[in-house]
Specification:
Length: 118
């Protein structure tokens, strides 16, 4: 009797987990789309930007590309390079955290990254 109750609870938790993951993935897609729009605008203004800002955007874009190619470790390295240029660039921290959390499932590292953002 107890076994069937546990199975029902496990199924309930599994469906909630799947819904949460779907929500996180959808939010990530929306955030990335917003960032691409922002980056497009920033590229229009690049003539006025310093070399460091251009390098920062280049690392972010390269990391995003690696992420889309499922080369997550390379993406993390690019986000780290961007953060060396500007450690307060929250979008780089966010992308790194999302990659660690969703793609690499390195939860402790992702938690540390999120603590930097907030």
């Amino acid at each position: 009797m107890l076994g069937s109750s546990w199975n029902g609870i496990e199924v309930m938790f599994e469906s909630e987990r799947e819904q949460i993951l779907r929500n996180v993935v959808e939010r990530r897609r929306i955030l990335k789309k917003a960032q691409l729009t922002y980056d497009k605008k920033r590229r229009q203004d690049m003539q006025q930007d310093s070399g460091a800002e251009k390098a920062l955007l280049a690392w972010i874009n390269k990391g995003y590309t690696f992420d889309e190619l499922h080369r997550y470790e390379d993406a993390i390295e690019c986000y780290d390079n961007a953060l060396e240029i500007s450690s307060n660039y929250k979008y780089a921290w966010m992308l790194k955290g999302l990659t660690l959390l969703l793609d690499l499932e390195r939860y402790e590292e992702a938690t540390q990254v999120v603590s930097v953002i907030f």
